[in-house]
Write a structure and sequence with these properties.
This protein is α/β, with parallel strands linked by helices. It folds into three domains: 98 residues, Roll (Urease, subunit C, domain 1); 128 residues, Diaminopimelate Epimerase, Chain A, domain 1 (Roll); 298 residues, Alpha-Beta Barrel (TIM Barrel), CATH 3.20.20. Helix content is 26%, strand content 21%. The protein is globular, with a radius of gyration of 24 Å. The structure holds zinc ion.
Length: 563
Protein backbone atom coordinates (compact mmCIF):
# COMPACT_ATOMS: atom_id res chain seq x y z
CA UNK A 1 0.00 0.00 0.00
CA UNK A 2 1.52 3.26 -1.20
CA UNK A 3 0.90 6.67 0.29
CA UNK A 4 2.19 10.02 -0.97
CA UNK A 5 2.43 12.87 1.49
CA UNK A 6 2.44 16.02 -0.56
CA UNK A 7 2.45 19.76 0.05
CA UNK A 8 4.52 19.13 3.18
CA UNK A 9 7.59 20.76 4.65
CA UNK A 10 9.88 17.87 5.31
CA UNK A 11 12.93 18.09 7.56
CA UNK A 12 14.79 15.15 6.06
CA UNK A 13 17.88 15.09 8.26
CA UNK A 14 19.77 14.36 5.04
CA UNK A 15 22.68 16.80 4.87
CA UNK A 16 22.62 16.88 1.05
CA UNK A 17 18.92 17.76 0.82
CA UNK A 18 17.73 19.03 4.20
CA UNK A 19 14.22 20.03 3.10
CA UNK A 20 11.72 18.31 0.80
CA UNK A 21 8.05 18.73 -0.10
CA UNK A 22 6.89 15.21 -0.89
CA UNK A 23 7.33 11.83 0.73
CA UNK A 24 6.11 8.56 -0.77
CA UNK A 25 6.02 5.43 1.34
CA UNK A 26 5.36 1.88 0.26
CA UNK A 27 4.60 -0.45 3.14
CA UNK A 28 7.18 0.21 5.83
CA UNK A 29 9.73 1.84 3.52
CA UNK A 30 10.32 5.30 2.13
CA UNK A 31 10.15 5.08 -1.63
CA UNK A 32 10.67 8.70 -2.51
CA UNK A 33 11.52 11.92 -0.79
CA UNK A 34 12.08 15.16 -2.67
CA UNK A 35 10.38 17.90 -4.62
CA UNK A 36 6.73 17.61 -5.64
CA UNK A 37 6.73 15.20 -8.61
CA UNK A 38 3.47 13.63 -9.74
CA UNK A 39 5.23 10.90 -11.63
CA UNK A 40 6.30 9.50 -8.25
CA UNK A 41 2.75 9.21 -6.89
CA UNK A 42 1.40 6.61 -9.34
CA UNK A 43 -0.86 4.17 -7.51
CA UNK A 44 -0.47 5.99 -4.19
CA UNK A 45 -3.16 7.35 -1.88
CA UNK A 46 -2.53 11.09 -1.73
CA UNK A 47 -2.39 12.93 1.58
CA UNK A 48 -2.21 16.70 1.22
CA UNK A 49 -0.48 17.97 4.35
CA UNK A 50 -1.34 21.61 3.58
CA UNK A 51 2.07 22.88 4.57
CA UNK A 52 2.47 20.83 7.74
CA UNK A 53 5.90 19.67 8.83
CA UNK A 54 7.35 16.18 8.82
CA UNK A 55 10.26 15.11 11.03
CA UNK A 56 12.06 11.77 11.35
CA UNK A 57 10.92 9.61 14.29
CA UNK A 58 12.54 10.67 17.55
CA UNK A 59 15.27 8.49 19.03
CA UNK A 60 15.79 8.45 22.81
CA UNK A 61 19.31 7.11 23.21
CA UNK A 62 19.22 6.17 26.91
CA UNK A 63 16.00 5.27 28.71
CA UNK A 64 14.85 2.53 31.11
CA UNK A 65 11.77 0.64 29.86
CA UNK A 66 12.11 -2.11 32.48
CA UNK A 67 12.63 0.17 35.45
CA UNK A 68 9.78 2.49 34.48
CA UNK A 69 7.40 -0.41 33.86
CA UNK A 70 8.13 -1.90 37.26
CA UNK A 71 7.90 1.36 39.18
CA UNK A 72 4.17 2.00 39.26
CA UNK A 73 3.77 0.62 42.80
CA UNK A 74 6.44 2.93 44.27
CA UNK A 75 5.10 5.67 46.51
CA UNK A 76 5.93 9.28 45.78
CA UNK A 77 7.24 11.36 48.67
CA UNK A 78 6.29 15.02 49.00
CA UNK A 79 9.05 17.22 47.58
CA UNK A 80 10.52 18.96 50.60
CA UNK A 81 13.80 19.73 52.33
CA UNK A 82 12.10 19.27 55.71
CA UNK A 83 12.95 15.87 57.19
CA UNK A 84 10.02 16.14 59.65
CA UNK A 85 7.59 16.44 56.74
CA UNK A 86 9.07 13.40 55.02
CA UNK A 87 8.76 11.44 58.27
CA UNK A 88 5.15 12.54 58.84
CA UNK A 89 4.22 11.52 55.31
CA UNK A 90 5.71 8.04 55.80
CA UNK A 91 4.08 7.71 59.22
CA UNK A 92 0.65 8.62 57.85
CA UNK A 93 1.09 6.32 54.88
CA UNK A 94 2.01 3.48 57.22
CA UNK A 95 -1.06 4.10 59.36
CA UNK A 96 -3.32 4.16 56.32
CA UNK A 97 -1.92 0.94 54.82
CA UNK A 98 -1.77 -2.11 57.01
CA UNK A 99 1.28 -4.28 57.18
CA UNK A 100 -0.79 -7.13 55.72
CA UNK A 101 -1.72 -5.10 52.64
CA UNK A 102 1.65 -3.45 52.19
CA UNK A 103 4.37 -5.57 53.83
CA UNK A 104 7.13 -3.51 52.22
CA UNK A 105 7.13 0.20 51.39
CA UNK A 106 9.25 1.73 48.65
CA UNK A 107 9.21 5.53 48.62
CA UNK A 108 10.68 7.58 45.84
CA UNK A 109 12.62 10.78 45.91
CA UNK A 110 13.95 12.45 48.94
CA UNK A 111 16.22 15.35 47.96
CA UNK A 112 19.78 14.01 47.82
CA UNK A 113 21.01 16.90 49.98
CA UNK A 114 18.39 16.25 52.68
CA UNK A 115 21.07 14.64 54.85
CA UNK A 116 24.15 16.47 53.64
CA UNK A 117 27.38 14.57 53.27
CA UNK A 118 26.79 12.36 56.32
CA UNK A 119 23.96 10.67 54.45
CA UNK A 120 20.64 9.32 55.68
CA UNK A 121 20.39 7.30 58.91
CA UNK A 122 18.06 4.40 59.71
CA UNK A 123 17.01 5.96 63.03
CA UNK A 124 15.05 8.73 61.28
CA UNK A 125 13.22 6.19 59.17
CA UNK A 126 12.58 3.95 62.19
CA UNK A 127 10.90 6.95 63.84
CA UNK A 128 8.48 7.09 60.91
CA UNK A 129 7.95 3.34 60.52
CA UNK A 130 9.40 0.41 62.41
CA UNK A 131 6.82 -2.33 61.88
CA UNK A 132 7.95 -3.39 58.38
CA UNK A 133 10.80 -2.88 55.89
CA UNK A 134 10.92 0.58 54.33
CA UNK A 135 13.25 1.89 51.66
CA UNK A 136 13.46 5.42 50.29
CA UNK A 137 15.28 6.38 47.15
CA UNK A 138 17.03 9.69 46.58
CA UNK A 139 16.24 12.01 43.72
CA UNK A 140 19.51 11.24 41.97
CA UNK A 141 18.46 7.54 41.87
CA UNK A 142 21.79 6.34 43.18
CA UNK A 143 21.28 6.26 46.96
CA UNK A 144 18.92 4.50 49.30
CA UNK A 145 17.77 5.05 52.85
CA UNK A 146 16.74 1.93 54.76
CA UNK A 147 15.04 1.45 58.11
CA UNK A 148 16.29 -1.19 60.56
CA UNK A 149 13.62 -3.70 59.49
CA UNK A 150 14.73 -3.36 55.88
CA UNK A 151 18.39 -4.03 56.70
CA UNK A 152 17.28 -6.97 58.79
CA UNK A 153 15.07 -8.40 56.05
CA UNK A 154 17.82 -7.98 53.47
CA UNK A 155 20.18 -9.81 55.82
CA UNK A 156 22.59 -6.89 55.95
CA UNK A 157 24.71 -6.93 59.09
CA UNK A 158 28.12 -5.87 60.31
CA UNK A 159 29.50 -8.99 58.62
CA UNK A 160 27.93 -8.41 55.20
CA UNK A 161 30.43 -7.92 52.42
CA UNK A 162 29.84 -4.82 50.33
CA UNK A 163 29.35 -5.43 46.59
CA UNK A 164 32.13 -2.93 45.73
CA UNK A 165 33.58 -1.24 48.81
CA UNK A 166 33.88 2.52 48.40
CA UNK A 167 31.50 2.76 45.47
CA UNK A 168 28.66 0.28 45.93
CA UNK A 169 28.24 -0.26 49.62
CA UNK A 170 26.26 -0.13 52.81
CA UNK A 171 27.71 2.79 54.74
CA UNK A 172 28.89 1.81 58.27
CA UNK A 173 29.35 3.55 61.60
CA UNK A 174 32.59 3.30 63.63
CA UNK A 175 31.54 -0.16 64.86
CA UNK A 176 31.00 -1.39 61.33
CA UNK A 177 27.22 -1.47 61.72
CA UNK A 178 25.23 -0.44 58.63
CA UNK A 179 23.78 3.04 59.18
CA UNK A 180 20.88 2.66 56.75
CA UNK A 181 22.56 4.44 53.85
CA UNK A 182 23.07 2.45 50.66
CA UNK A 183 25.23 3.81 47.88
CA UNK A 184 25.06 2.78 44.23
CA UNK A 185 23.18 -0.40 44.98
CA UNK A 186 20.74 -1.39 42.30
CA UNK A 187 17.20 -0.58 43.49
CA UNK A 188 16.54 -4.12 44.52
CA UNK A 189 20.00 -5.59 44.34
CA UNK A 190 20.55 -9.32 44.46
CA UNK A 191 20.93 -11.23 46.73
CA UNK A 192 19.48 -8.63 49.12
CA UNK A 193 16.21 -8.39 47.20
CA UNK A 194 15.69 -12.16 47.38
CA UNK A 195 16.47 -12.10 51.09
CA UNK A 196 13.82 -9.42 51.58
CA UNK A 197 11.19 -11.29 49.57
CA UNK A 198 11.88 -14.48 51.47
CA UNK A 199 11.92 -12.81 54.87
CA UNK A 200 8.49 -11.23 54.45
CA UNK A 201 6.91 -13.68 52.01
CA UNK A 202 6.37 -11.01 49.38
CA UNK A 203 6.94 -10.46 45.68
CA UNK A 204 6.99 -7.13 43.84
CA UNK A 205 3.35 -6.47 42.89
CA UNK A 206 4.26 -5.63 39.32
CA UNK A 207 5.59 -8.56 37.40
CA UNK A 208 7.57 -7.80 34.28
CA UNK A 209 5.03 -8.81 31.69
CA UNK A 210 4.21 -7.47 28.27
CA UNK A 211 0.97 -6.13 29.77
CA UNK A 212 2.92 -4.16 32.40
CA UNK A 213 5.13 -2.64 29.73
CA UNK A 214 2.33 -1.33 27.53
CA UNK A 215 1.85 2.05 29.32
CA UNK A 216 5.55 2.84 28.91
CA UNK A 217 5.57 2.05 25.20
CA UNK A 218 2.30 3.90 24.66
CA UNK A 219 3.88 6.98 26.16
CA UNK A 220 6.79 6.69 23.73
CA UNK A 221 4.47 6.32 20.77
CA UNK A 222 2.43 9.39 21.72
CA UNK A 223 5.68 11.32 22.17
CA UNK A 224 6.80 10.44 18.64
CA UNK A 225 9.67 8.28 19.92
CA UNK A 226 10.13 5.46 17.44
CA UNK A 227 13.45 4.06 18.67
CA UNK A 228 15.21 3.79 22.03
CA UNK A 229 18.47 2.61 23.50
CA UNK A 230 18.33 0.80 26.81
CA UNK A 231 19.91 2.05 30.05
CA UNK A 232 19.99 -1.34 31.79
CA UNK A 233 18.18 -4.47 30.74
CA UNK A 234 16.19 -5.71 33.74
CA UNK A 235 16.67 -9.40 33.10
CA UNK A 236 15.17 -11.98 30.78
CA UNK A 237 11.58 -11.20 31.79
CA UNK A 238 11.94 -7.80 30.18
CA UNK A 239 13.34 -9.20 26.93
CA UNK A 240 10.59 -11.81 26.81
CA UNK A 241 7.89 -9.22 27.50
CA UNK A 242 9.08 -6.95 24.72
CA UNK A 243 9.43 -9.91 22.38
CA UNK A 244 5.84 -10.94 23.10
CA UNK A 245 4.63 -7.40 22.54
CA UNK A 246 6.43 -7.33 19.22
CA UNK A 247 5.10 -10.69 18.07
CA UNK A 248 1.60 -9.40 18.91
CA UNK A 249 2.26 -6.33 16.73
CA UNK A 250 2.08 -4.01 19.73
CA UNK A 251 5.69 -2.79 19.91
CA UNK A 252 5.90 0.49 18.02
CA UNK A 253 9.46 1.23 19.00
CA UNK A 254 12.80 -0.06 17.79
CA UNK A 255 14.77 -1.22 20.82
CA UNK A 256 18.53 -1.50 21.26
CA UNK A 257 19.33 -3.23 24.54
CA UNK A 258 22.35 -3.48 26.83
CA UNK A 259 23.46 -5.80 29.61
CA UNK A 260 25.15 -4.51 32.73
CA UNK A 261 28.50 -5.81 33.95
CA UNK A 262 30.59 -4.71 36.92
CA UNK A 263 34.22 -5.71 36.46
CA UNK A 264 36.56 -7.30 33.94
CA UNK A 265 36.02 -10.50 35.89
CA UNK A 266 32.28 -10.77 35.37
CA UNK A 267 32.28 -9.36 31.84
CA UNK A 268 32.60 -12.76 30.07
CA UNK A 269 29.60 -14.25 31.89
CA UNK A 270 27.55 -11.12 31.23
CA UNK A 271 28.47 -11.31 27.54
CA UNK A 272 27.33 -14.91 27.63
CA UNK A 273 23.99 -13.73 29.05
CA UNK A 274 23.69 -11.15 26.27
CA UNK A 275 24.28 -13.89 23.69
CA UNK A 276 21.50 -15.97 25.27
CA UNK A 277 19.13 -13.01 25.24
CA UNK A 278 19.73 -12.48 21.54
CA UNK A 279 17.21 -15.26 20.96
CA UNK A 280 14.62 -12.51 21.48
CA UNK A 281 16.00 -10.40 18.62
CA UNK A 282 13.41 -9.40 16.05
CA UNK A 283 13.19 -6.82 13.31
CA UNK A 284 12.58 -4.26 16.09
CA UNK A 285 14.71 -5.64 18.92
CA UNK A 286 18.45 -6.05 19.12
CA UNK A 287 21.01 -6.49 21.85
CA UNK A 288 24.56 -5.49 21.10
CA UNK A 289 25.91 -3.43 23.99
CA UNK A 290 27.49 -3.90 27.42
CA UNK A 291 26.78 -1.35 30.15
CA UNK A 292 29.14 -0.21 32.89
CA UNK A 293 28.70 2.23 35.76
CA UNK A 294 32.11 3.83 36.07
CA UNK A 295 31.25 6.20 38.92
CA UNK A 296 28.31 7.57 40.91
CA UNK A 297 26.71 11.01 40.87
CA UNK A 298 27.89 14.55 41.55
CA UNK A 299 25.03 15.06 44.00
CA UNK A 300 26.09 12.06 46.12
CA UNK A 301 29.77 12.95 46.04
CA UNK A 302 30.72 9.61 44.53
CA UNK A 303 31.36 10.73 41.00
CA UNK A 304 35.06 10.49 40.15
CA UNK A 305 36.47 13.99 40.33
CA UNK A 306 39.74 15.55 39.23
CA UNK A 307 39.56 17.84 42.27
CA UNK A 308 39.28 16.94 45.95
CA UNK A 309 35.85 17.51 47.45
CA UNK A 310 35.19 21.05 48.54
CA UNK A 311 33.76 19.91 51.90
CA UNK A 312 36.60 17.51 52.73
CA UNK A 313 39.13 19.20 55.01
CA UNK A 314 41.71 16.47 54.37
CA UNK A 315 41.70 17.24 50.64
CA UNK A 316 41.97 13.55 49.80
CA UNK A 317 38.43 12.71 48.68
CA UNK A 318 38.19 12.58 44.89
CA UNK A 319 35.00 10.52 44.81
CA UNK A 320 34.85 6.95 43.59
CA UNK A 321 35.57 5.02 40.44
CA UNK A 322 34.64 1.42 39.63
CA UNK A 323 37.86 0.70 37.75
CA UNK A 324 40.94 2.46 36.46
CA UNK A 325 41.88 2.80 32.81
CA UNK A 326 43.97 -0.40 32.59
CA UNK A 327 41.05 -2.62 33.58
CA UNK A 328 38.68 -0.62 31.42
CA UNK A 329 41.08 -0.99 28.48
CA UNK A 330 40.84 -4.77 28.82
CA UNK A 331 37.04 -4.54 28.99
CA UNK A 332 37.02 -2.53 25.77
CA UNK A 333 39.31 -5.03 24.07
CA UNK A 334 37.06 -7.92 25.04
CA UNK A 335 33.90 -6.09 23.86
CA UNK A 336 35.68 -5.21 20.63
CA UNK A 337 36.67 -8.84 20.08
CA UNK A 338 33.04 -9.82 20.64
CA UNK A 339 31.79 -7.13 18.25
CA UNK A 340 29.92 -5.36 21.05
CA UNK A 341 29.54 -1.69 21.94
CA UNK A 342 30.07 -0.32 25.45
CA UNK A 343 27.73 2.19 27.07
CA UNK A 344 29.28 3.74 30.18
CA UNK A 345 27.64 5.74 32.93
CA UNK A 346 30.14 8.45 33.80
CA UNK A 347 29.49 11.68 35.59
CA UNK A 348 32.68 13.17 37.02
CA UNK A 349 35.54 14.76 35.08
CA UNK A 350 37.99 12.08 36.26
CA UNK A 351 35.66 9.31 35.08
CA UNK A 352 35.51 11.01 31.68
CA UNK A 353 39.30 11.17 31.51
CA UNK A 354 39.73 7.54 32.58
CA UNK A 355 37.16 6.56 29.93
CA UNK A 356 38.99 8.47 27.19
CA UNK A 357 42.36 7.06 28.29
CA UNK A 358 40.97 3.52 28.15
CA UNK A 359 39.55 3.99 24.64
CA UNK A 360 42.85 5.44 23.49
CA UNK A 361 44.86 2.58 24.94
CA UNK A 362 42.46 -0.10 23.74
CA UNK A 363 42.45 1.25 20.19
CA UNK A 364 46.25 1.42 20.13
CA UNK A 365 46.51 -2.15 21.42
CA UNK A 366 43.98 -3.43 18.90
CA UNK A 367 45.88 -1.72 16.12
CA UNK A 368 49.15 -3.27 17.25
CA UNK A 369 47.51 -6.68 17.28
CA UNK A 370 46.07 -6.05 13.82
CA UNK A 371 42.53 -6.33 15.19
CA UNK A 372 39.86 -4.22 13.54
CA UNK A 373 38.17 -1.73 15.88
CA UNK A 374 34.38 -2.12 15.82
CA UNK A 375 33.36 -1.33 19.43
CA UNK A 376 31.55 1.95 19.80
CA UNK A 377 32.17 3.62 23.16
CA UNK A 378 29.10 5.52 24.36
CA UNK A 379 29.75 7.85 27.27
CA UNK A 380 26.49 8.71 28.99
CA UNK A 381 25.94 11.79 31.19
CA UNK A 382 29.43 13.39 31.11
CA UNK A 383 28.10 16.07 33.46
CA UNK A 384 31.45 17.69 34.04
CA UNK A 385 34.30 17.45 31.55
CA UNK A 386 37.65 19.15 31.88
CA UNK A 387 38.10 21.54 28.91
CA UNK A 388 41.34 19.76 27.98
CA UNK A 389 39.36 16.54 27.40
CA UNK A 390 36.51 18.02 25.38
CA UNK A 391 38.14 17.35 22.00
CA UNK A 392 38.85 13.70 22.80
CA UNK A 393 35.46 12.14 21.91
CA UNK A 394 35.81 13.47 18.34
CA UNK A 395 39.41 12.20 18.10
CA UNK A 396 38.65 8.82 19.61
CA UNK A 397 35.25 8.13 18.03
CA UNK A 398 33.38 8.26 21.33
CA UNK A 399 29.64 8.94 21.26
CA UNK A 400 28.55 11.31 24.02
CA UNK A 401 25.01 10.95 25.34
CA UNK A 402 23.27 13.70 27.29
CA UNK A 403 19.88 13.60 29.01
CA UNK A 404 19.05 17.13 28.02
CA UNK A 405 16.09 17.69 30.36
CA UNK A 406 18.70 17.80 33.14
CA UNK A 407 20.19 20.99 31.64
CA UNK A 408 18.31 23.32 34.00
CA UNK A 409 17.58 22.99 37.70
CA UNK A 410 16.58 19.32 37.93
CA UNK A 411 19.50 18.41 40.20
CA UNK A 412 19.60 21.90 41.69
CA UNK A 413 22.72 23.12 43.40
CA UNK A 414 23.30 19.83 45.18
CA UNK A 415 26.65 19.13 43.52
CA UNK A 416 27.93 22.28 45.21
CA UNK A 417 28.21 20.26 48.43
CA UNK A 418 31.29 18.72 46.85
CA UNK A 419 32.24 21.16 44.09
CA UNK A 420 33.27 24.80 44.23
CA UNK A 421 30.66 27.14 42.77
CA UNK A 422 33.04 27.78 39.92
CA UNK A 423 33.15 24.09 39.06
CA UNK A 424 29.38 23.73 39.45
CA UNK A 425 28.98 26.46 36.87
CA UNK A 426 31.02 24.43 34.39
CA UNK A 427 28.62 21.50 34.46
CA UNK A 428 26.48 20.35 31.51
CA UNK A 429 28.55 21.87 28.71
CA UNK A 430 28.22 20.07 25.42
CA UNK A 431 28.70 22.79 22.83
CA UNK A 432 32.52 22.53 22.75
CA UNK A 433 32.23 18.74 22.37
CA UNK A 434 29.68 19.15 19.57
CA UNK A 435 31.77 21.80 17.83
CA UNK A 436 34.83 19.56 17.93
CA UNK A 437 32.90 17.12 15.74
CA UNK A 438 31.93 14.40 18.20
CA UNK A 439 28.72 12.45 17.81
CA UNK A 440 26.38 13.73 20.54
CA UNK A 441 23.05 12.00 21.13
CA UNK A 442 20.15 12.90 23.41
CA UNK A 443 18.02 10.95 25.81
CA UNK A 444 15.76 11.19 28.83
CA UNK A 445 17.20 8.50 31.13
CA UNK A 446 13.84 8.38 32.94
CA UNK A 447 13.53 5.52 35.40
CA UNK A 448 10.06 5.86 36.95
CA UNK A 449 6.52 6.75 35.95
CA UNK A 450 6.74 9.95 37.98
CA UNK A 451 9.25 11.46 35.63
CA UNK A 452 8.19 9.75 32.43
CA UNK A 453 6.49 12.92 31.13
CA UNK A 454 9.96 14.52 31.02
CA UNK A 455 10.90 12.06 28.27
CA UNK A 456 8.68 14.13 25.97
CA UNK A 457 11.33 15.36 23.52
CA UNK A 458 9.73 18.81 23.31
CA UNK A 459 10.06 19.23 27.08
CA UNK A 460 13.69 18.09 26.99
CA UNK A 461 14.50 20.36 24.07
CA UNK A 462 12.99 23.34 25.85
CA UNK A 463 15.09 22.76 28.98
CA UNK A 464 18.27 22.26 26.95
CA UNK A 465 17.63 25.30 24.77
CA UNK A 466 16.81 27.61 27.70
CA UNK A 467 18.71 26.04 30.67
CA UNK A 468 15.47 26.66 32.60
CA UNK A 469 13.58 23.74 34.12
CA UNK A 470 9.89 24.71 34.28
CA UNK A 471 9.28 22.08 36.99
CA UNK A 472 12.46 22.57 39.02
CA UNK A 473 13.45 26.21 38.44
CA UNK A 474 16.60 27.48 40.11
CA UNK A 475 16.11 30.33 42.58
CA UNK A 476 15.42 33.34 40.33
CA UNK A 477 16.88 35.70 42.94
CA UNK A 478 20.22 34.02 42.51
CA UNK A 479 19.89 32.97 38.87
CA UNK A 480 18.00 35.58 36.83
CA UNK A 481 15.11 33.96 35.00
CA UNK A 482 16.09 30.68 36.74
CA UNK A 483 18.59 30.15 33.93
CA UNK A 484 21.32 27.73 34.83
CA UNK A 485 24.68 29.30 34.04
CA UNK A 486 26.47 29.59 31.76
CA UNK A 487 24.24 30.92 28.99
CA UNK A 488 26.78 29.72 26.43
CA UNK A 489 25.85 26.13 27.28
CA UNK A 490 22.33 26.46 25.85
CA UNK A 491 21.88 23.97 23.03
CA UNK A 492 20.47 25.11 19.71
CA UNK A 493 17.35 23.44 18.38
CA UNK A 494 18.98 22.21 15.12
CA UNK A 495 21.63 20.51 17.27
CA UNK A 496 18.91 18.98 19.44
CA UNK A 497 17.01 17.71 16.41
CA UNK A 498 20.10 16.05 14.97
CA UNK A 499 20.98 14.51 18.34
CA UNK A 500 17.44 13.14 18.64
CA UNK A 501 17.33 11.69 15.13
CA UNK A 502 20.28 10.81 12.90
CA UNK A 503 22.89 10.88 15.69
CA UNK A 504 20.78 8.54 17.81
CA UNK A 505 20.50 6.20 14.83
CA UNK A 506 24.29 6.24 14.48
CA UNK A 507 24.74 5.39 18.18
CA UNK A 508 22.63 2.27 17.58
CA UNK A 509 24.22 1.40 14.21
CA UNK A 510 20.76 1.83 12.73
CA UNK A 511 21.60 4.89 10.62
CA UNK A 512 21.28 2.87 7.41
CA UNK A 513 17.60 2.29 8.18
CA UNK A 514 16.43 5.26 10.27
CA UNK A 515 17.32 8.66 11.72
CA UNK A 516 16.63 10.60 8.55
CA UNK A 517 14.03 10.55 5.79
CA UNK A 518 15.76 9.09 2.79
CA UNK A 519 14.80 6.61 0.12
CA UNK A 520 15.03 3.02 1.30
CA UNK A 521 14.86 3.88 5.01
CA UNK A 522 12.05 2.80 7.29
CA UNK A 523 8.97 5.02 7.26
CA UNK A 524 9.25 6.29 10.84
CA UNK A 525 8.19 9.92 11.01
CA UNK A 526 6.10 12.48 12.84
CA UNK A 527 3.79 15.20 11.54
CA UNK A 528 3.69 18.56 13.29
CA UNK A 529 1.76 21.76 12.55
CA UNK A 530 4.73 23.92 13.50
CA UNK A 531 8.31 24.41 12.44
CA UNK A 532 10.20 23.19 15.50
CA UNK A 533 13.32 25.18 14.63
CA UNK A 534 11.36 28.43 14.42
CA UNK A 535 9.18 27.90 17.49
CA UNK A 536 9.95 30.03 20.59
CA UNK A 537 12.37 27.90 22.61
CA UNK A 538 10.75 28.75 25.95
CA UNK A 539 7.44 27.32 24.71
CA UNK A 540 8.59 24.17 22.91
CA UNK A 541 6.73 22.05 25.47
CA UNK A 542 3.44 23.30 23.97
CA UNK A 543 4.16 21.41 20.75
CA UNK A 544 2.39 18.16 19.99
CA UNK A 545 2.59 15.72 17.12
CA UNK A 546 -0.46 15.57 14.86
CA UNK A 547 0.46 12.05 13.88
CA UNK A 548 3.19 9.49 14.48
CA UNK A 549 3.99 6.99 11.75
CA UNK A 550 5.89 3.81 12.61
CA UNK A 551 6.88 1.26 9.96
CA UNK A 552 4.55 3.12 7.61
CA UNK A 553 1.52 2.77 9.90
CA UNK A 554 -0.19 5.56 11.81
CA UNK A 555 0.28 4.64 15.48
CA UNK A 556 -0.78 7.95 17.00
CA UNK A 557 -3.01 10.78 15.79
CA UNK A 558 -4.68 10.93 12.45
CA UNK A 559 -3.35 11.78 9.01
CA UNK A 560 -6.76 11.93 7.41
CA UNK A 561 -7.53 15.05 9.39
CA UNK A 562 -4.64 16.59 7.47
CA UNK A 563 -6.42 16.23 4.12
ZN1 LIG B 1 20.31 5.48 33.00
Amino acid sequence: MKTAFINAQIYTGDKNAPWAQALVIDGDKIEYVGQEDETKYAGAAIKDLKGKYIYPGIIDSHIHPGMVSQSSWHIKLPWTDDLGQVQSFIKEYTQAHSKEDAPFLYFEYYPTKLFGSTGPHKKYLDEACDDRPVMCQDFGEHQHWYNSRMLEAMGVTKETEDPMPGLREFVRDEDGQPTGWGKELVHMEEPFASNLCKAIGWEPPIEMTSEAMIPFFEFLTNAGITAIAEGILEGEAQMKSMYELDIAGKLHTYYDGCVRYYTLEDLPEKIQFLREMQKYNTKHIKLNTMKLFLDGTNESGNSASLHPHENDPTGTNYGEIAMESDELTECFLLCNKEGLDMHIHMVGDRAFRVGCDAVEKAKAKAKKQGVEWVCQPIFAHCEIVDPSDMGRPAQLGITVNWSCHWSGGYFGEEAMTFFTEEKWKKMYQFNPIIRSGALVTFSSDVVTFYELHRANPFFSMQVAATRVDPEFPLDPKKYPGSVRPPESAKLEVPVLLRGYTINGAKQMHWDKIMGSLEEGKIANFNICSSNIEKYPVDRLTELKWDAVIFDGEVVYGDIDSCR
